[in-house]
Amino acid sequence: MIKYVAAFLLSGVFLNAQEDVKVGDVLEIGNPEARTYKHIEVPRANFIIKRGGIADYKTLKGEEVVVTSIKEKKDGTQEIKIKRTNGHRFFGSHPVIAANYKEALASGELRVQ
Asked: Which residues, at least 6 apart from 56, have a Cβ–Cβ distance to it below 8 Å?
Protein backbone atom coordinates (compact mmCIF):
# COMPACT_ATOMS: atom_id res chain seq x y z
CA MET A 1 0.00 0.00 0.00
CA ILE A 2 2.83 2.37 0.84
CA LYS A 3 4.32 1.83 -2.63
CA TYR A 4 1.08 2.98 -4.25
CA VAL A 5 0.83 6.08 -2.07
CA ALA A 6 4.45 7.00 -2.78
CA ALA A 7 3.94 6.50 -6.53
CA PHE A 8 0.80 8.65 -6.44
CA LEU A 9 2.55 11.46 -4.60
CA LEU A 10 5.55 11.38 -6.93
CA SER A 11 3.33 11.45 -10.01
CA GLY A 12 1.66 14.59 -8.62
CA VAL A 13 5.06 16.22 -8.16
CA PHE A 14 6.01 15.50 -11.78
CA LEU A 15 2.70 16.80 -13.09
CA ASN A 16 3.06 20.04 -11.13
CA ALA A 17 6.62 20.46 -12.42
CA GLN A 18 5.33 20.33 -15.99
CA GLU A 19 2.73 23.01 -15.30
CA ASP A 20 5.35 25.66 -14.58
CA VAL A 21 6.09 27.62 -17.73
CA LYS A 22 8.78 30.17 -18.45
CA VAL A 23 9.40 32.54 -21.33
CA GLY A 24 11.43 30.68 -23.91
CA ASP A 25 9.94 27.21 -23.27
CA VAL A 26 9.32 25.20 -26.43
CA LEU A 27 5.90 23.55 -26.78
CA GLU A 28 4.16 21.59 -29.51
CA ILE A 29 0.61 22.14 -30.70
CA GLY A 30 -1.42 18.92 -30.56
CA ASN A 31 -4.87 17.85 -31.74
CA PRO A 32 -7.99 19.62 -30.49
CA GLU A 33 -10.62 17.52 -28.71
CA ALA A 34 -13.32 18.86 -31.03
CA ARG A 35 -13.11 20.31 -34.53
CA THR A 36 -11.68 23.61 -33.29
CA TYR A 37 -9.17 24.55 -30.62
CA LYS A 38 -10.90 25.42 -27.38
CA HIS A 39 -8.01 26.67 -25.22
CA ILE A 40 -5.76 28.11 -27.93
CA GLU A 41 -7.21 31.37 -29.18
CA VAL A 42 -6.91 30.95 -32.93
CA PRO A 43 -8.39 33.82 -34.94
CA ARG A 44 -11.60 33.31 -36.85
CA ALA A 45 -11.36 32.63 -40.56
CA ASN A 46 -12.66 36.04 -41.64
CA PHE A 47 -9.89 37.85 -39.70
CA ILE A 48 -7.23 35.59 -41.20
CA ILE A 49 -8.52 36.19 -44.73
CA LYS A 50 -8.81 39.97 -44.21
CA ARG A 51 -5.14 40.08 -43.21
CA GLY A 52 -4.10 38.13 -46.31
CA GLY A 53 -3.65 34.70 -44.76
CA ILE A 54 -4.98 31.23 -45.49
CA ALA A 55 -7.46 29.87 -42.93
CA ASP A 56 -6.28 26.25 -42.73
CA TYR A 57 -6.43 25.13 -39.10
CA LYS A 58 -4.95 21.71 -39.92
CA THR A 59 -1.52 23.31 -40.33
CA LEU A 60 -1.29 23.98 -36.58
CA LYS A 61 -1.03 20.29 -35.63
CA GLY A 62 2.54 19.34 -34.73
CA GLU A 63 3.85 22.90 -34.98
CA GLU A 64 6.64 23.79 -32.53
CA VAL A 65 6.07 27.08 -30.72
CA VAL A 66 7.96 29.12 -28.15
CA VAL A 67 6.45 31.05 -25.22
CA THR A 68 7.00 34.79 -25.63
CA SER A 69 5.06 36.17 -22.64
CA ILE A 70 3.08 35.01 -19.62
CA LYS A 71 0.19 36.90 -18.05
CA GLU A 72 -1.51 35.91 -14.81
CA LYS A 73 -5.22 36.76 -14.98
CA LYS A 74 -7.42 37.76 -12.05
CA ASP A 75 -9.13 34.35 -11.99
CA GLY A 76 -5.75 32.60 -11.52
CA THR A 77 -5.31 31.26 -15.04
CA GLN A 78 -2.12 31.76 -17.01
CA GLU A 79 -2.47 33.23 -20.47
CA ILE A 80 0.60 32.70 -22.62
CA LYS A 81 1.52 34.22 -25.96
CA ILE A 82 3.18 31.82 -28.38
CA LYS A 83 4.97 32.22 -31.69
CA ARG A 84 6.37 29.70 -34.14
CA THR A 85 9.98 28.63 -33.64
CA ASN A 86 10.83 28.89 -37.34
CA GLY A 87 9.86 32.59 -37.41
CA HIS A 88 6.95 32.24 -39.83
CA ARG A 89 3.50 33.62 -39.07
CA PHE A 90 0.47 31.54 -38.12
CA PHE A 91 -1.72 31.20 -41.24
CA GLY A 92 0.60 33.69 -42.98
CA SER A 93 -1.01 36.59 -41.12
CA HIS A 94 -0.66 36.39 -37.31
CA PRO A 95 2.79 36.43 -35.68
CA VAL A 96 1.55 35.60 -32.16
CA ILE A 97 -1.50 33.83 -30.71
CA ALA A 98 -2.65 33.36 -27.11
CA ALA A 99 -3.51 30.25 -25.12
CA ASN A 100 -4.78 29.28 -21.69
CA TYR A 101 -1.73 27.26 -20.61
CA LYS A 102 -3.08 24.84 -17.99
CA GLU A 103 -6.31 24.07 -19.83
CA ALA A 104 -4.54 23.58 -23.17
CA LEU A 105 -1.96 21.33 -21.53
CA ALA A 106 -4.62 19.24 -19.80
CA SER A 107 -6.67 18.81 -22.97
CA GLY A 108 -3.68 17.90 -25.15
CA GLU A 109 -3.86 20.99 -27.35
CA LEU A 110 -0.36 21.91 -26.13
CA ARG A 111 2.40 19.44 -25.26
CA VAL A 112 5.67 20.08 -23.45
CA GLN A 113 8.71 19.24 -25.59
From this structure: 91
CA distances from 30 to 9, 39, 72, 108 (A): 27, 11, 23, 6
Query: What's the pLDDT tens digit per position in 10-45?
Result: 555 444 545 689 999 999 999 988 888 999 999 999
User: Which residues lie below 8 Å from residue 36, measured CB to CB, with a gap of 6+?
Assistant: 42, 57
Angle 82-38-44 (CA atoms, 0-180°, nearest 5)? 75
- CA distance linking residue 43 with residue 48, whole number of Å: 7
pTM greater than 0.85: no
